[in-house]
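Q: What would this chain look like folded?
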Amino acid sequence: MSATTFKRRQAAGYTLIEMLVTIALGSIITGLSATLLVGLLRTEKAGRQHAVESRTLERLGRQCRADAHRASVSDLPPRVGGPAVTRPICSLSDPAAGVQIDYEQRSREVVRRELREGRLVRHEVYRFP
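A: My prediction, written as structure tokens:
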């Protein structure tokens, strides 16, 4: 038997296995990146809603505190059970100045109405997301 030597020809390109491995790794990295991006967007949205709600509560608390200090008469209506579209929270007034301030709760918002001598002067709505 004669010894024949086969010369392996060097290919200039990539093999099919190398291409499949590269495509699979690229797909995995893309999928993980997309999942991470969606999670970050959800977290950012929840953080933004929490910040808006915190600012709204702070403004409402500051305004209510100022109204309570200014009032000389307060009225807290009794809580009635059952679902209600509008529920009064409290009524603050200063008869000497002719000012009456009413707070009422609606679904996901608190409404503040300021009346001077029976006329509506200010109407504020504090919405909660």
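The chain is about 45% helix and 30% strand.
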